[in-house]
Batch of 3 targets.
Target 1
Amino acid sequence: MTSHDAPDPARDVAADDAFAGVVAMDGPSGTGKSTVARRLAVRLGARYLDTGAMYRAATLAVLRSGVAQTDDTAVTAAVAGSRIDISTDPRHPATRLDGEPVDGPIRSAEVTAAVSGVSAIRAVRAHLVAAQRQLIGAGGIVVEGRDIGSVVCPSAAPKIYLTASAETRARRRAGELGAGTDVAAVAADIARRDRLDSSRAASPLAQASDAIEIDTTNLEIDEVVNRLVDIVRRTAPHA
Ligand code: DC
């Protein structure tokens, strides 16, 4: 028995009852989406895909290439010419760009400032959505993003849409960024990205009509995860 086969106390299900479908987890940043999605995947014995990390790695590729961010064709070529690898292990999320680990650089202020622009380009989205569908494969995965239930995997079940008050989202993001972070500046940046992500023509951030909305403002992460495990047990297919 390898260490990968050892019983996992955090996991709810036996290996032969692992979750076989796709959970779509959409919503804006600061709603707890990433943490919730990862913990849910562990509980279900499923894989995990952070599509935001893919848009961030694509943006880093664009910044490194030096092309003008206003030149959609050059930006798309820079993305298509780069290699983005992403782990789907919920315990070890990791992103590589052209073979180099970029988990730090993709969270930098420069990437965060540029990512909404890059992810608004239709051809960039088409390229990354194709890669995401390949990674999703036959399922057994929790996928987080902005357009998972509406575009990437409309057949996902359940579809979850997380929200939280603007103030809570800014506080959580500032907490992630570390002590001394200016919460008002973070709130302004979140509002700017929300506006861009929700108003772009190509696959805007939108709640799928059949998504279950959960407001996380007054919930602890584990309460949200427990609710989701219940929802998955009720609604989703198992192997
Ligand atoms: O989840 P995040 O903040 O790491 O996402 C970074 C950016 O990527 C976000 O501003 C919107 C974009 N994004 C997207 O357009 N579609 C997705 N499926 C995921 C992220």
Note: The chain has one domain: 2-232.
Target 2
Amino acid sequence: MQVTRTLPELRECLTTRPRPIGLVPTMGFLHAGHLALVRRARAECATAAVSIFVNPAQFGPQEDLARYPRDLPRDLRMLESAGADVVWVPEADEVYPRGYQTYVTVGRVAEPLEGAARPGHFRGVATVVAKLFNAFTPDHAYFGQKDAQQAAVIRQMARDLNFPPEIIVCPTIRESDGLAMSSRNTYLDPQERRAAAVLYRALSAAMIAYQRGQRSADNLRAAMRDTLSTEPLAKMEYVSAADPDTLQELDRVDGNALFSMAVRIGKTRLIDNFLLKDGSWDTGLIQGKGE
Ligand code: PAF
């Protein structure tokens, strides 16, 4: 596994690597969800490439950029064992040099939900992912379903700006109680960690209501809200039952739908979702059960 720091170093290293190249963009502090993406890239591509960059452009001024967890030696050990070939770990001024002033703004799909709650977030994500696509020139790029709107924004950007890589979205990997893996789970104290399983229960409540015949999106959103309200440590930011491509809220769930939510547990903001697609539910994978 080759670890590169500067852009010329990365480009030089990639010239000697076979195609197809699969890219897994990350912000580090890796967990089983990231490793599943790396293993998928390893299985499908001749070169599995990973970026580790805590992207300042996607954090709001009141967000957790400074305390975002970092542990590069641990990340590199995990990547080596997952079979990564090339890792890029740039400094912030390598990605955004002095005088930097170009940003990618995706339209409607980036506006609701996370876009409304975190102004500027998707502008930062789209900009850095565009730069990563230019840096790695990947054939495939791998993202997690946990960040469903991010995946929709990146797909839209790739389509609109003619970026070549195929965007591949992989299932959310979950802890045994259903909590979606996230680097931010490390902020939770033991009591909050137990409470955090309520997101999975709330999404399951919507799925069960749907399976019993409920098609009103208002009622399905209410099923999620009702379950969240049983957990005193959970403060709901939003629940949504939306079209998975446009992220517009639905009146009725008669076809594909993305059930998603953002919830604060103490000071930690968590997001999660279930996807109903072509009549079947993508609820993610519990680690250890098929992962
Ligand atoms: O999902 C993430 O970790 C980040 O948003 C990404 C895609 C690596 C861009 O910084």
Note: The chain has ten helices and twelve strands.
Target 3
Amino acid sequence: MRAVKNLLVLYTGGTIGMLETPEGLAPAGGFEARMREYLGQQAKAPQLQWALQEMNPLLDSANMQQHNWLAMRDAIVEAVEVAGHDGVLVLHGTDTLAHSAAALSFLLLGLPVPVLLTGSMLPAGAPGSDAWGNLCGALRQFELGLEDGVQLYFHGQLLHGCRTSKLRSEAFDAFAALPRHRDSELAAEIPATLGYRQLRQPVNLAIMPVFPGLHAEHLRALLDSGVQGLVLECYGSGTGPSDDQALLEVLHSARQRGVMMVAISQCPEGTVVFDTYAAGNRLRATGLVSAGGMTREAALGKLFALLGAGLDVEAAERWFELNLCGER
Ligand code: ASP
């Protein structure tokens, strides 16, 4: 843990820097000048040296895609390895902030600097906005010293990069670390193929909840669409409609042709333990891998990091079951 002296602020868009347009709030450039002006007026502003880089295009994070994660990863690695920054603050919209934090946790494994993501629920220009509080609070965290790795800072809380979800759409304390059970055999060593220098390709991934009324044909249509990896959101401890033989067969044949399938719990405090119920065991027998207590965001980001690195399904499944950075 050490204080950061030369920070990069990576501005990706989001409400924090948005301006009103005839269509509603939209991303806007020029945030560096606004930030320097605000901090210049504060008697007790954080003193660390910083530079700001804008991503292009700036996004409402509702538009975030895998290629944007890869562009963020490139910008962060370049900031550290080429420009010599010793910490990175990512300004991001809140809609997919937890998704990006989780994805970056895996894409930046082993990066020897702290990375913090923040944003705000109201634009920096709005009365009573949380923008400057979140921004200054995040800057202070860098001054105080942070562990290497990816974390979120929001409404006074420092949160784990891949155990956090957005729980509230209208409150300032929008994010929380979900209290899911952790079974955590930490991977002894991260191989180079999973480290921050590894280049990745986009991967065709999908998330599907089970629900009363889910048909084998729904799943078949999804799995026949070219999907390479599926996050199946199961009930409680990892159950689903296991009396539906056709549905089990759809899952089984997808795994046989190389689709990686992982199971998370739909319960905010849930953990997949297939053995608890016969209904869970039957799902596992199709080839589903347990994501333990991982969040939806973490399961998606980890699938992307593993399959995007070009691992075959068997290798990806082995790494998926290990704890790479506290996600399980
Ligand atoms: N739609 C906005 C975004 O995610 C919401 C926000 O930033 O709070 O970019």
Note: The two ends are 23 Å apart (CA to CA).
